[in-house]
Write a structure and sequence with these properties.
The chain has 527 residues and is α/β, with parallel strands linked by helices. Helices cover 42% and strands 18% of the residues. It has 23 helices and 18 strands. Bound molecules: adenosine-5'-diphosphate.
């Protein structure tokens, strides 16, 4: 059975039959169906993804990595994704080289142009609405780190444009399914249901902590009726929540690891939405993220002065020497620990500031690359000041440096208080860095703790600690630093970590199955 035949579950249709049925479900009109068949000769399923970030064009975290990598992985299943993204300045410069696809006259009072851009094998629909997106700063914050005051409108407009495209606004193209990501595009399914469009929607939550919560009196300004302010819809503790709107209207909800899918059903991890999620439990699924093995490959990485693979792991120490020099750290035989992360309470960086001394007592060094909460950045800098030459803090976001840090460090620390999936530990393993992680969310299921049983089974890939408290982290750092002293044991851990396969293959298949099931259900409902 081919992979695609597997998509339509129990019906055992051939690939060709399946493609045919999906097409016909949406294109009953003969002419349109014929056009569609011509357009789709090579692909069975067209997907519109809607997102606020995509690698390599705009990235603040793991969301961008996923939206950048998933379409490529899904293409091998015959699924063609076009991704709608706001026209931020970095994207506009490229997108405006191409003629417009269509004009929107009125997206919540804004005019916008839709442009097409193809980059690194990713097909983008760029929403060119300069008053909303063409401004300095990041996707969510201005140059001083403050939220753009009109984020409520910027992402409502993105979602509305997504809904209009999905409902057929773009001549000659219409998706079979829509995939939205996080609160920024969660309103897409709300608008689609308002329009009466039945196109299936998958919503993926990358981090439940960000919800798009706004005052309820914005409802008319985002074009939604007063009924949307109800417990069954967007009402959320007296406000409205874009994410809740998505949760209530999407046909399927995925989160980025099975453990996180279980955790968020409890008040501890549910961030106020556990009640809602429990009512949607039949649609909730955890699918662990994969990594882009081409972007994160130590044997081809253009950012590494010294490339390596499992056979040439010793080259890593040249990168380490370079890193120590670049960050003004004293050379030494001890382990080099690093953290590449948002500097926030979620990521446990306050705990690292508190217990980093454990590393230095054991002859190690520490590099932190990240930005976020200024108080925690200051706490990290204060620790670094107490240990000159042993710890460096680089406040900022820098993709090449992130790669170099993975290429030269012995261990990556990720002491998150909660972690939907976490990608850093996956990159770390591929680069022969042994991760030190808290046992939560995706970290707990992607890292195998180096306990005696796992060590003797040659399965261990890192160090986990629980409960997630400073003392737990201290102990894990101690265990890692001790293990580093045993060179053979450490090399084994590195190789075992490098062998762990977190490419997108497995996870992409799970998404493909979800897409296939939803489109098939849609077909059944209309026939
Ligand atoms: P989250 O999305 O919660 O921030 P993930 O671990 O899922 O966490 O993904 C983080 C991504 O962002 C990784 O690709 C990581 O390398 C990258 N990253 C985080 N901070 C920085 C930084 N300061 N510089 C470069 N890359 C960073």
């Amino acid at each position: 059975m081919t992979k695609v035949a597997g998509l339509d579950l129990s019906l055992a249709l051939s690939r060709a039959q399946f493609i045919q049925r999906v097409r016909e479900a949406y294109y009953r009109d003969e002419d349109e169906a014929a056009n569609r068949r011509r357009a789709l000769t090579r692909v069975p399923l067209h997907v519109l993804a809607v997102t606020s970030e995509i690698y390599p064009l705009v990235k603040t975290g793991g969301l961008a990595d996923v939206t950048g990598a998933l379409p490529k992985a899904l293409a091998t299943y015959g699924i063609e994704t076009h991704t709608l993204i706001p026209g931020y300045p970095s994207i506009l410069a490229l997108a405006r080289l191409h003629p417009p696809l269509m004009e929107f006259d009125d997206l919540l009072g804004e005019r916008a142009t839709l442009r097409h851009l193809e980059i690194d094998g990713i097909s983008l629909f760029v929403l060119d609405a300069p008053t909303l997106y063409d401004r300095p700063g990041g996707p969510y914050v201005d140059e001083n780190g403050y939220d753009h005051p009109d984020n409520w409108k910027r992402f409502a407009v993105l979602s509305l444009a997504g809904a209009e495209i999905a409902a057929g606004a773009l001549p000659g193209w219409r998706p079979d399914l829509v995939h939205t990501h996080d609160w920024q595009s969660a309103l897409t399914s709300v608008y689609l249901r308002q329009m009466g469009s039945p196109v299936p929607v998958v919503l993926t939550i990358h981090n439940l902590a960000f919800q798009g919560q706004y005052a309820a009196d914005l409802l008319p300004r985002i074009g939604l009726p007063p009924e949307a302010y109800s417990v069954d819809s967007m009402e959320y503790f007296g406000d409205i929540s874009y994410l809740k709107g998505g949760l209530m209207t999407a046909d399927h909800i995925t989160v980025v690891s099975p453990t996180y899918a279980r955790e968020i059903l409890s008040p501890t991890f549910g961030m106020g939405l556990d009640g809602v999620l429990n009512t949607r439990i039949d649609r909730l699924q955890g699918i662990v993220n994969g990594i882009d093995n081409e972007v994160w490959n130590p044997s081809t990485d253009p950012y590494l002065p010294f490339r390596f693979d499992m056979k040439s792991l010793r080259n890593k120490k040249n990168n380490k020497a370079l890193l120590l020099e670049r960050f003004n750290l004293q050379p030494g035989d001890g382990p080099l620990f690093s953290a590449v992360t948002r500097v926030t309470w979620q990521k446990g960086m306050d705990m690292l500031a508190e217990v980093a001394d454990e590393i230095f007592y054991r002859g190690g060094r520490l590099i932190v690359l990240g930005q976020g909460d200024h108080a925690i950045e200051d706490a990290l800098k204060a620790t670094a000041a107490r240990f000159p030459g042993k710890m460096a803090v680089s406040v900022g976001y820098n993709e090449p440096t992130a790669h170099l840090i993975h290429g030269g460090s012995d261990s990556i620390i990720q002491p998150s208080r909660f972690e939907p999936c976490g990608l850093t530990q996956l990159y770390a393993m591929r680069y022969g860095c042994v991760p030190v992680v808290s046992r939560t969310g995706g970290l707990s299921e992607t890292i195998i703790d180096a306990n005696d049983a796992a060590l003797s089974a040659r399965a261990a890939t890192g160090f986990q600690f629980h409960p997630v408290r400073p003392e737990g982290l201290r102990q894990a750092l101690r265990r890692a630093a001790d293990a580093y002293q045993d060179k053979r044991k450490w090399a084994r851990l590195q190789l075992q970590a490098m062998r762990a396969d977190y490419s997108w293959d497995r996870s992409a298949e799970s998404y493909a199955q979800v897409y296939g099931r939803l489109t098939e259900q849609r077909f059944q409902a209309t026939h």
